[in-house]
């Protein structure tokens, strides 16, 4: 799943995926509830991309007992409302925090000063 048709074409060329859907993270996703054992999103929760409310859809499409894994920039975590949304979803029982990494440079050659963290939540 990706917003960009160009990125979907890149994924097709790799030959290791079997489903390609153009959708926008932050809108309703065209998947049944409880479809996936795990959902992984890397490089999407950054300024100008998917909003914090997109976490709700990721939980919805994840099976009970499954995991939602995503990368998130520490600066965006607080400044763009991701922390507040994550904490609200914990308080509401939508998911439980399993682990979070320490900040690291995900792109040390291209953007060495931009840090990322990886978050893992379990859907009850």
From TrEMBL:
Entry coiled-coil feature ranges: none
Protein known as: Methyltransferase-like protein 27
Native organism: Geodia barretti
Keyword Magnesium annotated: no
GO biological process: methylation
Gene Ontology MF: a single term: S-adenosylmethionine-dependent methyltransferase activity
Lineage: Eukaryota, Metazoa, Porifera, Demospongiae, Heteroscleromorpha
InterPro entries, sorted: Methyltransf_11 (IPR013216), SAM-dependent_MTases_sf (IPR029063)
CDD domains from the UniProt entry: AdoMet_MTases
Keyword field: Methyltransferase, Transferase
Residues annotated as domain Methyltransferase type: 1-70
């Amino acid at each position: 799943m990706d917003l960009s048709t160009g990125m979907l074409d890149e994924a097709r060329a790799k030959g290791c995926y079997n489903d390609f859907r153009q959708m926008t993270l932050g809108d309703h996703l065209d998947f049944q509830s409880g479809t996936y054992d795990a959902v992984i999103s890397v490089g999407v929760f950054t300024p100008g991309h998917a909003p914090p409310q997109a976490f709700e859809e990721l939980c919805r499409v994840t099976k009970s007992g499954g995991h939602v894994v995503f990368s998130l920039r520490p600066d965006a975590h607080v400044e763009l409302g991701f922390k507040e949304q994550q904490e609200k979803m914990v308080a509401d029982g939508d998911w439980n925090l399993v682990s979070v990494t320490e900040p690291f440079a995900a792109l040390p050659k291209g953007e060495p000063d931009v840090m990322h963290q990886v978050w893992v939540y379990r859907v009850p």
